[in-house]
Amino acid sequence: MAAKRDNFGSHFAAIMAMAGSAIGLGNIWRFPYVVGQNGGAAFIVVYLFSAVFLCIPIFLSEALIGKRTQLSTFGAMEALAPGRKWKWLGFLTVFTPLIILSYYSVVGGWSLEYLLKALSFSFTSADVTQEGLSADFSGFISSTWAPLFFHTVFMLINAFVLMAGVKGGIEKFTKITTPLLFVLVVVIMAYSMSLPGAGAGISYLLKPDFTKLTPYSVLSAMGQAFFSLSLGVGCILTYGSYLKKDSDLLTTGLSTSLFDLCFALIAGFAIMPAVFAAGIEPGAGPGLIFETLPFIFSKMGAGMPVVSGIIAIIFFITIVFAALTSSISMLETGVAYLVDQKHLARGKAIAILFTGCWALGVLCCLSFGPMADVKILGLTVFDLCDKMTANFLMTFGSLLFTLFVGWRMKKSDVYDEFTNGGSLRTSVKVFGFVYFLIKFVAPVVIGVIFITTLVM
Ligand code: TRP
After folding, report:
1. What Å distances lie between residue 366 and 284, 285, 363, 371, 374, CA to CA?
2. Residue 229 CA: which ligand 1 atom is closest?
3. Considering only CA atoms, which residue is closest to atom 9 of ligand 1?
4. What's the confidence (pLDDT) of residue 2?
5. Is-contact 405 443, C-beta < 8 A?
6. What would the mean pLDDT of 112-123 be, rounded to a whole number?
7. Confidence at residue 3, expressed as pLDDT on a 0 to 100 scale
8. How far apart, in whole angstroms, are the C-alpha atoms of residue 401 and residue 334?
9. What Rg do the C-alpha atoms of the chain give, in angstroms?
């Protein structure tokens, strides 16, 4: 057992680190493109519903288990339900984030490449066209070496940050970059919405057409909500275990969820209007923002090339940081497991996981180029890793966490941990409602959507 675990220095730092895990490529890259693939506003309605009625109870369940046991996933399940099958949930949660990391790192690598492009002011020169930008992007991702190189660099940065530990590494990063990114996305949103032709994008996000919803798109909306908050895979549990014993779970949970939700919506309004203004297909898939953002910067650049060039640079720097604060949280879950349970040295744990994720990431990376024809269940390796984790493993994990807290833990223990022994007034007041969401609403809704998708 690790003798003394790192704690977050302050409550603010804990919230920022959890928000750092939550806010990432999921908000800026994934949200706009899955909205585009699933028909727009109706999808967002389901997403909002999931965020409030499902994500908050799941977040609280996970953070509560972590805070109570001060252990990472596997150990936490063992401690609360010794000798039971629940410990397999611990296993699931160690592996899922690692699969996610392998493809997340590929997109992190794309962001690095785009940062370099921004540094050379290549989006703001007078002769960029939308066709050119799109061709550039597809040329880049379908090539072999460049994306592999950037994927590798992205993974290496993760390993270095994690070597520095919780206080030295993760905290310092998140405190500065997360708020900065928020400001930038707001600026870009304002600009994007003012582009000629942006109106169609805005109504795409605001006028729901529920006939477009299928059971699978409902599952995807729920999966996206879970993905965005890093739920169901033990990330929040692990960060919860770094919370001080007197931390207020409700405030932490609500602020993180709200912040993350606003971030995704703002990113949607930053990207979608420009997608329509540029005449890009909203369902274009994982490359959506990489084709759209340069377009925004180039339009901005027409009037003020230097300003727009600088905004592009700062923007891609903060995206890279947002991606990193999320990806380190994925690696951290596995590292915490190997250190706490297998008593490996931190460095060794990082080296092992790094190698595994990097290798799977190579396959994801090549699935846009040389391995584009390799399909499993009709999906490329990249899509398979993405859909399998976000839509299935995370939903399944989330279901199990709420069942665990709602049905396996003693209600009095849950109450104690949630209200810090009855000392938090607001938490005491809302406990009944929150407990109802955890025990009944979340498991039933997730279960029904899950099963409907499987049978339809
Ligand atoms: N939530 C992060 C994002 O929106 C991604 C992320 C971090 C994540 N940790 C995770 C996703 C664990 C799934 C599981 O970018």
Report:
1. 19, 16, 5, 5, 10
2. 1
3. 230
4. 41
5. no
6. 93
7. 42
8. 18
9. 21
390: Cβ contacts below 8 Å, ≥ 6 apart: 30, 100, 220, 223, 224, 226, 227
Strand, helix or coil at 376? strand
Could you give the CA distance from residue 450 to residue 88 in angstroms, rounded to a whole number?
A: 20
Shortest-distance Cα residue to atom 12 of ligand 1: 230
Burial class from Cβ neighbours inside 10 Å (0-12, 13-18, 19+) for residue 343 reads exposed
The predicted model scores a pTM of 0.93
pLDDT in the model for residue 395: 93
As a whole number of angstroms, the distance between CA 401 and CA 86 comes to: 10
How far, in Å, CA of 92 to CA of 122, rounded? 43
CA distances from 199 to 192, 196, 290 (A): 10, 8, 21
List Cβ neighbours of 335 (8 Å cut-off, separation of 6 or more).
162, 346, 349, 350, 353
Q: Do the Cβ atoms of 374 and 367 come closer than 8 Å?
A: yes
Tell me the domains of the chain and their CATH numbers.
11-455 (1.10.4160)
pLDDT higher than 60, residue 261 = yes
Which residue, chain included where needed, has tokens 């109106």?
Answer: 199
Q: In the prediction, which pLDDT does 200 show?
A: 97
254: alpha, beta or left? (left if phi > 0; alpha if psi -120 to 50)? alpha
- Residue 11, by phi and psi: left (phi above 0), alpha (psi -120 to 50) or beta? alpha
Amino acid type, 107 = V
Nearest alpha-carbon partner for 75 in 86, 90, 88: 90
Looking at residue 167, what is its pLDDT? Answer: 54
Question: Residue 421 Cα, ligand 1 centroid: separation in angstroms?
Answer: 31
Q: Considering only CA atoms, which residue is closest to atom 7 of ligand 1?
A: 326
103, 226, 235: which to mutate for ligand 1, most atoms within 8 A of CB? 235
Across 35-40, average pLDDT: 95
pLDDT band at 322 (very low <50, low <70, confident <90, very high): confident
Q: DSSP letter at 230?
A: T
CA dist., res. 41 & res. 107, Å (int):
25
